[in-house]
Amino acid sequence: MIPRLFPSLVLLSAGIALSFHAHADDSWPLSLSQAQTIARERNHDLKLSRFAVRGAQANVEIAGVGPNPVLTVQSASIRPGTGFGSGSLTNQAIDTTVRLDQLIERGGKRELRTSNARKLELAAQADSADVERQLDLLVAEAYADLHATQERRAAAIDSAQLFEAMLAAAQKRKEAGDIAGADVERVKVDALRAKNDIDAANGELARSRYSLALLLGENLRAGAIEAIDPWPALQAAELSDASNVEQIVAQRADVRAAMARLEAARNGRELALSLRTRDVSVGVQYEHFPQSGDSAQSSPHSVGISLQIPLFVRNYYKGEILSAEAGFDIASENLGKTREAAANEIERARGAVQSSAARVLRNRDELLVAAANSAKAAEFAYKNGAVGVMDVLDARRTLRATRIDALAALAEYSKALAQWRAATAATGVSSESTQEHPQ
Predict the structure, then answer these.
(1) How do residues 110-148 score in pLDDT, each as one tens digit?
(2) How many CA atoms lie within 13 A of 118 on its CB side?
């Protein structure tokens, strides 16, 4: 928090910070890890990605099933004009056929189809893991915004109280004839501006809470959310973990999804080529056709077999093969694009962490110290009549602006660190995405 990181401001903000962070009965204090856990359970986008995994698992079941046999029952040689005659129905001169046909797939089509579906299932699982990775990042960024907004509101309240105290003191000095009325009005203007800053901070706080609540799927409790984690410590040593960028890139969920889709496209290309291996259809039939006479040739029962082979006269599946080749090329190019984007994201995150950490150090160790010393010196000089009220107001404005800049630097560093961790995360399959493939 600000009192811990910036000891020069302890006397100015300790009381306000304590009153601001005291949990009300209706508050909902959340740590970042708690917020991310809730988001993984309730976020709508993550739920949709898990449903997509279930759909991909169903496609695996569909792909592994062979074609069903076809049963045909047919009656022919029916002459309504002559009637059916006497005797039972089985003795009527009606040609009845019962036929069973079975398509036999050749060329490994079922195996290729199943392998393709399994690769797409792996891609869906990796997609879900990548949604979870990005969700963790979005929650961390929203949490940092909320944290900074809370601190800016505390700083605004602190500044307003200081200006109110200064205004009260100036009015007493005016009554004593020590300062001019114009100086009192100048102090009053700054006091009123400080109150406006509080109102603006309240509105910003509400927006930050609802932005985080949307990610958590908890709009009903949005107004009570309170960030309670301290600002993250500077961790420059953590950047050394990315010495092997290629290995990190290969483990990322989005890259693994692209690799699985490339394998699926390769299977799809082989499946398209297998269409040129002819599938055959085998059939057996039983025929019942009563005839007159007692010879063996007049028996009403007969059986038959059939074999159907397609003739590639017009369609040799050239279009399907070209389409599968294009799909493979697209998947290959997309994998290269995803790898480059991941490596670029890692390097950008590394630079953002380094630059924001330097900014935090500069604000903490130099700017805030100088601004606080300047404000104290101006107040001391004003009490001893060495400077006018405008000098004191300028020094306090500078101090307040420096504190806001310091908060912005902390929020920027917190986001950059979250981006770095997300960029280098080797997120596995979500434990709730599928029961068959737990993490």
Answers:
(1) 999 999 999 999 999 999 999 999 999 999 999 999 999
(2) 10
42: amino acid identity, one letter: R
What tens digit of pLDDT does each residue of 277-287 get? 999 999 999 98
Out of 1.20.1600.10, 3.40.50.1820, 3.40.930.10, 3.30.1300.10, select the CATH number for domain 2-66+105-276+312-423.
1.20.1600.10
Rounded distance between C-alpha atoms, residue 209 and residue 149, angstroms: 9
- Count Cβ atoms below 10 Å from residue 68 Cβ, excluding itself: 8
CB 408 within 8 A of CB 148: yes
pLDDT computed for residue 64 by the predictor? 94
- Write down the pTM of the prediction: 0.80
Alpha helices by DSSP H, listed for 225-317, are 245-251, 253-274
User: 333 by DSSP, 3-state: which?
Assistant: helix
Exposure string over 278-296, b if 16+ CB within 10 A, otherwise e: ebebebebebebbeeeeee
